From TrEMBL:
Membrane topology designation: Multi-pass membrane protein
Coiled-coil intervals: none
Binding-site positions, heme c 1: C64, C67, H68
Protein name as it appears in the record: Cytochrome bc1 complex cytochrome c subunit
Keywords of this entry: Cell membrane, Electron transport, Heme, Iron, Membrane, Metal-binding, Repeat, Respiratory chain, Translocase, Transmembrane, Transmembrane helix, Transport
SUPFAM superfamilies tied to this protein: Cytochrome c
UniProt EC number: 7.1.1.8
Compartment annotation: Cell membrane
Catalysed reactions listed for this entry: a quinol + 2 Fe(III)-[cytochrome c](out) = a quinone + 2 Fe(II)-[cytochrome c](out) + 2 H(+)(out)
Length: 265
């Protein structure tokens, strides 16, 4: 019986093996390239972060450890910093409240002693030992939220100390709630997040990040727009308004009465 001739288009038995090998070579090469690039980026970020932590450790040892302890355990001169996170360090150091200039009812705001890079390094170091609330991102600080909702939240949670217009106010034992006019959005957010000094902590379960942004939007709105009620008298509330009425209002009535009496005589 005659044998059938092989088809002209029949593939070689090793063709499939060659194709698989080529596919594996391309796949493996691409994966290796991607992995090496990602690893290099991770190593660079890790190196940068570690260098920041190392710099923060030096700054902390020289400026903060005397009161707070090298391991954040605190002392009789300063509280422990375990769990305060980067946000608290950024707020306290960035506003100049720390290092403390002198003992008093509360830490006073003053020109910061450290640069932004040094402040970040201190925050990185503290967060590396004991994680806590992180520094807010730019998206969380954009004052494009709902000012109406922010105003309502501010009046409910903040106005009893900071005044409805954020002008600040006196507290007990020589303490006070500072004015919020001109304060950077980052520090307003961090203050809500960490509760510095006499302020309660408003974590993300109490006031969500979106609500915090609304509060910042409200504060920036009243700061950048004129009062619709006329002369604001410093936004100091009923005390300033009452004093104004006593001096000028009742004073005018008394002066008018004296003038009328003198004229009749």
């Amino acid at each position: 019986m005659a044998r059938k001739p092989a088809k002209a288009n029949r593939r070689h038995p090793l063709a499939t093996v060659v194709l698989i090998a080529i596919g594996l070579a391309f796949t493996g090469g691409g994966y290796a390239l991607f992995t090496s690039t990602a690893t290099a980026q991770t190593d660079t970020a890790s190196s940068t972060s570690q260098s920041s932590v190392d710099e923060g450790k030096k700054l902390f040892a020289a400026n903060c450890a005397t009161c707070h302890g090298m391991s954040l355990e605190g002392s009789t001169a300063g509280p422990a910093l375990l769990g305060v996170g980067a946000a608290s360090v950024d707020f306290q150091v960035g506003t100049g409240r720390m290092p403390l200039a002198m003992q008093g009812p509360q830490a006073m705001e003053k020109p910061p002693q450290f640069t932004e890079e040094q402040t970040q390094a201190l925050a990185d170091y503290v967060a590396s030992l004991s994680p806590g609330p992180a520094i807010p991102t730019d998206d969380q600080l954009t004052a494009n939220g709902n000012a109406t909702n922010g105003g309502e939240l501010f009046r409910i949670n903040c106005a009893m100390c900071h005044n409805v217009a954020g002008a600040g106010g006196a507290l007990t034992e020589g303490k006070f709630a500072p004015s919020l006019t001109g304060v950077d959005s980052k520090y307003i957010y961090e203050a809500m997040l960490t509760g510095p000094q006499n302020m309660p902590v408003f974590n993300d379960h109490n006031i969500t990040p979106e609500d915090k942004r609304d509060i910042i939007t409200y504060l920036k709105y009243i700061q950048n727009n004129d009062s619709t009620g006329g002369y604001d008298l410093g936004n100091l509330g009923p005390v300033a308004e009452g004093l104004f009425i006593w001096i000028f209002g009742i004073g005018a009535v008394v002066a008018l009465t004296v003038w009328l009496t003198a004229k009749s005589n």
